[in-house]
Specification:
Layout (H helix, E strand, L loop, with lengths): L5 H13 L8 H12 L6 E5 L7 E5 L7 E7 L26 H17 L5 E7 L7 H7 L11 E8 L7 E3 L2 E4 L1 E10 L3 E2 L9 H19 L7 E9 L5 E2 L2 E10 L2 H22 L2 E7 L6 E3 L1 H13 L5 E3 L9 H7 L2 E7 L16 H18 L2
Parallel strand pairs: 3-4, 3-5, 5-16, 6-15
Antiparallel strand pairs: 1-2, 2-4, 6-16, 7-14, 8-12, 8-13, 9-11, 10-12
Helix pairs in contact: 1-3, 3-9, 5-6, 7-9
Bound molecules: the ligand CC(=O)N[C@@H](CCC[C@H](N)C(=O)O)C(=O)O.
Length: 383
């Protein structure tokens, strides 16, 4: 296969959209990606699998006169969301959806890869198709497995995230922090179940969980500098079995966001404090589990990002938008803490937010993204 045309890219995106898989289970997705990649010109290309991270794929293209190795990363996992777009190519996997646009990310990466497979780059290139961005820290897992060593270590790493708030095909970026760091939150409350009619003999964890959730929201409004900001979202609550049994257990899952490690640690500590307070006041056992894993703030490298922005601003075919930091998280933050690089947005123009069941990115963004990235990589290699 030659360089992917716009029609081919859209077909690939729709195929991938129909087979979304959760973190570390991206088996069909990885097989599909491999099939597409093996259809490219293989002359200078090497595909590598990682036995301990079996849904990851790495591709190396040998440069003709390499001065460096350029890395490009895409995430490949999906979310436990039931799709409500009504599209003819909607998810075929019940309860799972590419609701964060990773189908777009993968397709753009394949488009860029197809170009350089056909037009040998001067620098070496590494493409990393990364499992488990939404949870489970795929980037960190790969790094800790020693994947990026020797000829597989990029000198610089680039990656994108789609953005429904930007016009289709626009490139958004900023110097400094692009995305927040996050902490995954798991809270368990243990009390005593009982009959609905006899609360005095039980210890109701629905009421304790409700109090904890309300108090947690005061952390941001009362303990955090409003100029700096932060987020606590508790997105999942499980408790009880039936209306007339007092629940003796509740489970809460959520996420904390801050633009600096200091801020994240401060919010983490305050949530621990709230958990201890609820334990005392409800005579319950409260376990607050906090795990940042690889979701460090996404810090763009100053030198490389300056070059990136200069290229995008100077390219008349690119609609470049200087963006504000966002509270979205990304485990690319971990890889950028080890290898310098730049993360940026690709506009996909949609009324629905990321992670929503109706997200429907504009497909014209794909070819625009491929062209902008291919152009940037080519220009970078000429420096
Ligand atoms: C771009 C995006 O939506 N990323 C996810 C990353 C998840 C981080 C982690 N699992 C957490 O939930 O804290 C996001 O939710 O921002």
């Amino acid at each position: 296969m030659a360089v992917l045309t716009e029609d081919a890219l859209i077909k690939i995106r729709r195929d991938l959209h129909q087979i979304p898989e959760l973190a570390l289970n991206e088996v069909q997705t990885a097989a599909y990606l491999e099939k597409v990649i093996t259809s490219f010109n293989q002359t200078h290309l090497e595909i590598r699998k990682i036995p301990d991270l079996p849904t990851a794929l790495l591709v190396r293209i040998e440069g003709s006169a390499p001065k460096r190795t350029l890395g490009y990363r895409t995430d490949i996992d999906a979310l436990p969301v039931t799709e409500e777009t009504g599209l003819p190519f909607a998810s075929k996997h019940p309860g799972v959806m590419h609701a964060c646009g990773h189908d777009i990310h993968m397709t753009v990466a394949l488009g860029v890869l197809s170009y350089f497979a056909e037009h040998q780059p001067t620098d070496n290139m590494i493409f990393f198709f990364q499992p488990a961005e939404e949870s489970e820290n795929g980037g960190k897992l790969a790094y800790e497995l020693g994947v990026f060593k020797g000829q597989w270590r990029p000198d610089e790493f680039y990656g994108l995230h789609d953005n429904p708030d930007l016009p289709a095909g626009a490139i958004g970026c900023r110097m400094g922090t692009l995305f927040a760091g996050t902490t995954e939150v798991n809270i368990d409350l243990e009390g005593k179940g009982g009959h609905a009619a006899y609360p005095q003999d039980a210890n109701d964890m629905v009421v304790a969980a409700a109090a904890l959730i309300s108090q947690a929201q005061t952390i941001i409004s009362r303990s955090i500098d409003p100029i700096e900001g932060g987020v606590i979202t508790l997105g999942k609550l499980e408790a009880g079995t039936i209306r007339n049994v007092i629940a003796g257990h509740a489970h809460i899952e959520g996420t904390i966001r801050g633009l600096t490690q200091v801020m994240i640690k401060r919010i983490d500590q305050r949530l621990q404090d709230v958990g201890e307070g609820i334990a005392r006041s409800f005579n319950a056992k409260v376990t607050v589990g906090l795990n940042q894993g690889g979701y460090l703030p996404v810090e763009n490298n100053p030198e490389l990002t300056k070059r990136f922005i200069k290229y995008m601003k100077g390219n008349p075919d690119v609609n470049f938008v200087e963006t504000e930091p966002a509270m979205t998280g990304e485990d690319f933050g971990y890889l950028l803490s080890k290898i310098p690089g730049t993360m940026f947005w690709l506009g996909v123009e949609d009324d629905s937010q990321l992670h929503s069941a109706t997200l429907s990115p504009k497909e014209s963004s794909i070819e625009a993204g491929v062209n902008a990235i291919t152009g940037f990589m080519t220009a970078r290699m000429a420096e």
